[in-house]
Amino acid sequence: MYKVAVTQKLHDDGLAVLQKESTVLNLDKKTPLITAKEIAGQDGLIIRIATIDQTAIEASPQLKVIGRPGVGYDSIDMAAATESGILVVVTPGANTLSVAEHAVAMMMMFAKDMLFCDRELRKGNFQARNRYKAFELDKKVLGLIGLGNIGKETARLAKGLGMSVAVYDPIVSQKVIEALGYTYVATLDDLLKASDIISIHVPLLDSTKNLISGRELEIMKREALLVNCSRGGIVDEDALYDALVDEKIAGAALDVFSTEPPPADDRLFTLDNVIVTPHMAAQTKEAVSRMATRCAQGVLAVIRGEHWPHVVNPEAYDHPRWKK
Ligand code: NAD
Question: Where are the domains of the chain?
């Protein structure tokens, strides 16, 4: 049997895969940093919430693979892992549909004025139905920032609702966007000006930090909704607060925050035109099961010495340990 450590309990479906070929050690991590002592003798490690640094990696010569049930790997010192011939397995696509559905659900909740009316009805205010803020999504323009995996799925769902989809993504060609039946928009400003709903689906990079700030919010339609299910730092939250208070835009729906967890007294939480969820777009039964299962499969495949397609650092296969 191989030996695989998990930082916290893995979803049962992934655990079952692991247990067929390995003894699983649950580290039950409560502290952020993984130590070499904790993973001594382990062939594989699956990190849910914790980080591993160069010191722990260099002191763990037996470790062959680190799995991440998801796509982010900022919790791993990648240079040290590659240098030590440790493959980092991720699970691209496992949560794509769940995140896209979450973004569309947020659009629906806003379009139907559902959250406000729910809160009001519980207070006895049946007249909330008469503020006529609800609207139909049919024929509204959804402006997508980013047409990667999640953006594509969101576009497909929105099309099904009769929305017109416009896309700004500097990496995806006009030909590809138009072949999919969407409107190609060459600049972010033009997308912001034209859209009834803006949904963000880009990674957090230096180039996307505060991509949506005061100037961008200013040029959006006054009745527009901003949806962010990507990463918190992409929207400048102070500028967003001001834009919502000054009614520069009609609302925002946020699954992600610049600080997570956000403080309970976050100013954005005081606003009626904001819908918030706790970074849970990918936390569906299906996505969590898929992420754990695929991560377990990848980790075992690497330990067996097979080439797994979903590794972040395939160059680590050049390490002498894999030449045998
Ligand atoms: P992806 O890599 O498939 O697609 C990202 C797209 O963004 C690419 O097409 C890229 O060309 C485009 N892009 C990059 N910079 C851009 C810019 N400045 N302007 C416009 N487009 C730009 O990624 P994905 O799987 O679609 O995921 C998108 C993001 O969603 C992830 O990076 C992650 O941060 C976030 N995410 C959130 C959750 C959640 O639980 N809320 C779950 C999974 C992923």
Answer: 2-94+285-323, 96-276
Quote the pTM value. 0.88
Q: Let me know if 307 is a catalytic residue.
A: no
> Exposed (0-12), middle (13-18) or buried (19+): which is 9, by Cβ within 10 Å?
middle
pLDDT in tens, 220-274: 999 999 999 999 999 999 999 999 999 999 999 999 999 988 999 999 999 999 9
Domain 96-276 has CATH 3.40.50.720: yes
Task: Tell how far CA 236 is from the center of its chain.
Answer: 18
Sign of the torsion formed by the C-alpha atoms of 203, 99, 44 and 301: negative
Architecture field, domain 2-94+285-323: 3-Layer(aba) Sandwich (3.40)
Residue type, 136: E
Which of 261, 267, 300 shows the shortest CA–CA distance to 279?
261
Residue 122: strand, helix, or coil: helix
The C-alpha atoms of residue 161 and residue 63 are separated, in whole angstroms, by 48
Residue 203 in contact with ligand 1 by CB distance below 6 A: yes
**Contacts with 77 (C-beta within 8 Å, 6 or more apart), sequence order:** 52, 53, 54, 57
- Is 208's C-beta closer than 6 angstroms to any atom of ligand 1? yes
